[in-house]
Structure formats: C-alpha cells, structure tokens
Write a structure and sequence with these properties.
about 425 residues, alpha/beta, five-stranded parallel beta sheet, three-stranded mixed beta sheet, globular, disordered N terminus
C-alpha cells in the first residue's frame, strides 16, 4: 500500500475512503461520511424504508432469463418457480395473521463448468433488482482456521447493497464450487475436515435462516468488536458445482453401470446425452454419497441440472443473447467505423474449439479475444478500413482475415 493510500481518511462506520464519498466529517478521534449521516437521520426520524420487490410471475422470469441464457430450460423453469415462491414467502411475512409458514426454497445447481450456473444466478438478481453476492466455496474454512469465514459471504452482500441492511436481507447469494467442500471420506476421522464437512456445518445456519454478526470490515471476529446484525431468513441461497463423479454414483443406483473397459463401452458411458440423463435423475442419497452431509442437502429442496452445452448451444450463445459476444465485438468495431463479420463456418469452428477446451461457454471469450486482439490493435489507427470478415480458416490461424478498405473500393470504381 502506498503512503497516499495509507494516509487516506476513512469513515469510522462504513470504512468508505475519503475519495469515494462527497463529504467526510472529522471528529476528535473518528470520521463519518455523508452517506452514514443520511442513514442516521432516517433512523432518528423513524422514516420507514420500503423495498418494493419485483415479484414477477414464473413465466415472466423464465422469458427474461431466456434473453441472456441459451438452453437450460429445465433449470430456468425450476429457478423461476423457486424465486417466485421465495419472494411470495417474504411478502407473506408482512401479514401478521398468516395461517401457513412457508419454508425457504434454496436451490442447488448441478452441471459442468461453463454451463451457465453463475450466469443464471446473476441474471436473476438483475431481473429482480436485488443485491447479489458470489462466493467460492473453496476459499471457505471453518471458523478459527486459516481461510475465509462463511460470514464474509454475508458481508459481500451487505457491501453490494451499499450497507442497506434491509435491502441486503432480501438479496441473493450464489456459492460456487460447492462440490469441492464434500467430505473427503465417509469414515470418521480424528482430524478435522475444516474445508469440507466443517464448512458445510458452518453454512447450515445462515442458509436456513439466522441472525449473523458480521464484522463491518471483514476478516476474523475478535472480542470487543462491533458487528452488523443481518437476518439471513429471507436471503435466497443458490449453490452450484460440477460434481464430476456424480453420474457414476447415479448410474450405479439406477443399475446402468457399464461393465468392461472397452473403448466403445467407455465412449457410450461418457456420452453427453447419457451424462445429462443421469444428472437429471439425481436424488438426495446420491449427493450424500458424493460427500455432502444430509443436513446440508436438506436445506436445498430445489435440485436441478444444467446440461452440458452442445456445439449448437455454443453457436447460439455467440450470437443470440442480448449480451452475445459477437454483438459486443461488432459494436466495439462499429465505434471505429468498421463492420465486423463472422461466416457461419467461423462460428462453428469457434464453438468446436470451445467444446474441445472442456470449459463450456467460458472458452468462447478467450477464443474470440485471442483472434481479434491484433485487429483491435490495428483498426483504430487505420481509418481506411471499412469491413473485416473472418471465416473458419481465419479462426484457425491458417490465413489472415479479409479486410476491405476505402482505397480498394475507389480502385474498383
């Protein structure tokens, strides 16, 4: 940290640095920013803060998700219903005369990397206009051990809600790589599994609903520290993981185990449709056998699979969503007065390369970016260029892209 950064004054309440607020009022031993002053005024004047939820119908949520996410219809439908019921539950809590208590509808997403699990959760939060936080389960450890406390996930949500606790308490948290905290063994061990079963136990309470004491600046808890109290009862938790060996567990339970080790049998066993079929048949007992503790699985009544993406899915991801990669780069080139084109075989080649990479849609950006980097370097400095076209050979690097210039058109004329 530089001397300038270390000398920068911070609000003693929310820790915002001086250069991120409009005013920072100093006292003898503390500072307070304009945002915290306004919050204090609201509290003192007892003005109720209302956070109107956008409770869209399941079909409306499904359609909005479809604008950004290709395929995964079953996952989109399950999430749409779960979210709709979850926020109806929150509204029902305002009714003191309610006769029925709804339980939380947390969601567990299965599926390979790059299949859209994180995008589904993030898009949901944008559609509903609620705070969203994402965490990686592999960084979490049981309280008291080297690593990150699970309460820090809640802190990220509070920070993303601009420290508006009431709004944060209606947000969405996505925990990725949840399969990586499976128990390392089914046998009882004398050593603690602090990054596996220990984390699952630590997550249980906040996932189900409890009042968590969150250190306002993050880090470890210590005595005499002030805490932010956050009720997680109405926070929707979505967890996701690849669960690589789960299809084997499901196939054994269903009696679909492949006998023998022939190349043909192995190919059939690993067939894309077969894996998707098996994951869609997942049961609680399969997840427990994988290494998740029964109490943890029980907190997620909605379990759904995100299918592995096919080459055709990847082609559509490149071109169809509102934020499609091809549309983004075409817009970037258009700002420099250049029309960017991809042939059909170029799109297919990129999709095939992404499929071979084994990381799903994540590989697409790297492939497109790497192929366009030289063009994005040259084009802004060459006003003579009007069009750039890439075909399959251009994507593979066997020949340069086709570049059309103003001078070429004048020579033809």
């Amino acid at each position: 940290m530089s001397s300038t950064e270390s000398e920068l004054a911070k609000c003693s309440f929310c820790s915002r640095p001086e250069d991120t607020v409009e005013k920072l009022i100093s006292g003898p031993t503390a500072y307070i920013c304009d945002k915290c002053v306004r919050l204090c005024v609201d509290i003192i004047s007892k003005k109720p803060v209302h956070h109107e939820l956008k409770v869209l119908k399941p079909k409306e949520i499904f359609d909005r998700l479809g604008e950004y996410i290709i395929g995964q219809d079953r996952a989109k439908k399950t999430l749409s219903v779960a979210v709709y019921n979850h926020y109806k539950r929150i509204k029902s809590h305002a009714n003191e005369n309610r006769e029925i208590e709804y339980s939380k509808a947390n969601v567990l997403l299965l599926g390979p990397t790059g299949s859209g699990k994180t995008l589904l959760a993030r898009t949901l939060a944008n559609i509903l206009d609620v705070p969203f936080a994402i965490a990686d389960a592999t960084t979490l450890t049981e309280a008291g051990y080297v690593g990150e406390d699970v309460e820090n996930i809640i802190l990220r949500l509070v920070q993303n809600a601009d420290y508006d606790i009431a709004r944060a308490e209606q947000g969405i948290i996505y925990v990725d790589e949840i399969d990586k905290i499976a128990k390392t063994t089914s046998n009882v061990s004398i050593t603690r599994d602090v990054s596996g079963e220990g984390v699952q136990q630590a997550l249980l309470k906040i996932v189900e609903g409890t009042v968590s004491n969150i250190p306002p600046k993050g880090g470890r808890k210590h005595p005499n520290q002030e805490y932010i109290k956050v009720n997680t009862e109405n926070i929707l938790f979505i967890v996701g993981g690849a669960f690589v060996h789960l299809p084997d567990i499901i196939s054994k339970r269903l009696g679909r185990r492949v006998i023998g080790f022939t190349e043909e049998a192995e190919k059939e066993h690993r067939d894309l449709n077969e894996v998707n079929f098996l994951l869609n048949k997942v049961a609680t007992e399969d997840l427990v056998k994988y290494g998740l503790i029964p109490e943890f699985v029980g907190r997620f009544p909605n379990i759904v699979n995100c299918n592995e993406l096919s080459v055709q899915d990847l082609i559509e991801i490149l071109t169809q969503p509102k934020n499609a990669l091809i549309k983004q780069y075409q817009h970037l080139f258009k700002e420099d007065g250049v029309d960017l084109h991809f042939t059909e075989d170029a799109l297919e080649t990129m999709a095939v390369k992404a499929k071979e990479a084994g990381t799903g849609a994540r590989a697409l950006r790297m492939i497109v970016e790497n192929r366009l980097i030289d063009l994005m370097y040259e084009v802004p400095s060459d006003p003579d260029i009007t069009d750039v076209t890439l075909d399959s050979e251009s994507i593979l690097g066997n020949k340069p892209p086709l570049i059309t210039r103003i001078s070429d058109q004048q020579n033809l004329g």
